Amino acid sequence: MGETCLARSSKYLYFSLLGLIFPFFLQSVLGRELKFVLVIYRHGDRSPIEVYPTSLHNESEWPQGFGQLTKIGMQQQYELGQYLKKRYSNFISTAYKREEILIQSTETDRTIMSAQANLAGLFPPSGDQIWNPKIIWQPIPVHVVPKADNPKLRFPMFNCPRYKKLLRETMRSNEFQAKIQPYKEFMKTIASYSGYDPRTLIYLDNFKMWHVQDTLFCESIHNYTLPVWATQDVRAKLAELTVLSLSSLFGIYKREEKARLQGGLLVKAILENLSRAAKNSEKRKMLVYSAHDTTLGALQMALNVYNERLPPYAACQIFELYQENNGEHTIEMYFRNHTVKDPCQLTLPGCSSACPLSKFAELVTPILVEDWANECRQMGGGGKIGKCSQA
Fold it and tell me: Which position among 43, 211, 292, 329 bears the catalytic label?
């Protein structure tokens, strides 16, 4: 028996109303809305920062010299940009809109170029944004943050007497000595291979052991000839020492106090941006920082979520701010350290994976400092610490 016009009309009205109501019902069930995203990533693949004395290769063998982004690094950042575009396709506009996103970078060539390559993947021009049909790319501003003016993205900072004192205490601490002891003979062997004075390599904060490992790592990626002593086992052990070096800078001993003088500065900037986004309904939806592995290491150790591994090229730390259906704001943290796997979710110790903004602020309060310069002067000491060389 056929439907009456009234029945068909009623059914049409029912489904029409359902179509209008369902999205709101679904949003209510899900109970949350993404409000703001903050991204911090390490630059892409680069040439070595410097080489050890007996290195088989010198700076002239690298197309752009030391510490520069390579084509592999450009590809890594382009891929990360594409990933971010896909992840936030329902949040940020497909086309670049300057009021929606701000990109900041440290002052090094590799981080600035990484941001540019990332943006090429994130915002390829379309429609009236295409200014040259032969180049599917558009210029997007990358704002440089000089370390001298704002040190939030460059760690470690050695111009802090209190931190230098803590670092010396770390090197003498039982915790550090217990970790370094198994490597003592190995370090002597590496000293003889690399041409460094053994007394130089024992201080991990001067980055010399780090540069031996890093140089060999860069050369292996780009198929440069390695010295016969640089076996896979040797390089693996050097990587372990590099992790220990990073940990000694920001953790192992008096982690919380170190965080107040190092990564805590970035945590404070992140918290301020998330809190501002929660209070205001601004047009800006995303803030991006292009930085270094030490930036990520300092940040993750300050938050006590470090995984005891070196952050790979184009590793990406994500903070997402949500508004729940009860009006409360929560923060979720993710770390992407692999291009073919989903990011792993990180949980701030003492909180849930979706951490209320107020609870997040309470938990990180011990590592926030209001007057950094003054706190650096407290109980400071002399002593010479090697200059930082960002990786």
Answer: 43
Mean pLDDT score, 148-169: 86
Q: What is the dihedral of CA 51, 52, 58, 63, to 10 degrees?
A: -20
Is 43 among the catalytic positions? yes
Instruction: Indicate which residue of 45, 205, 214, 293 is catalytic.
Output: 293
The pair of structure tokens assigned to 263 is: 């990564």
Q: Is the dihedral of CA 122, 128, 131, 136 positive or negative?
A: positive
Active site residue 342: no
Asked whether 236 and 221 are in contact (CB, 8 A), the reply is no
- Assigned superfamily of 32-156+259-373: Phosphoglycerate mutase-like (3.40.50.1240)
CB 35 within 8 A of CB 321: yes
Domain boundaries, the chain: 32-156+259-373, 167-254
Q: From the CB of residue 323, how many other CB atoms can be counted at a distance below 10 Å? A: 18
pTM, to two decimals: 0.87
- Cβ neighbors of 391 (< 8 A, separation 6 or more) are 49, 210, 214, 292, 293, 294
**pLDDT tens digits, 322-370:** 999 999 999 999 999 987 678 999 999 999 999 999 999 999 999 999 8
Q: Which of 299, 293, 312, 304 is nearest to 106 (CA)?
A: 293
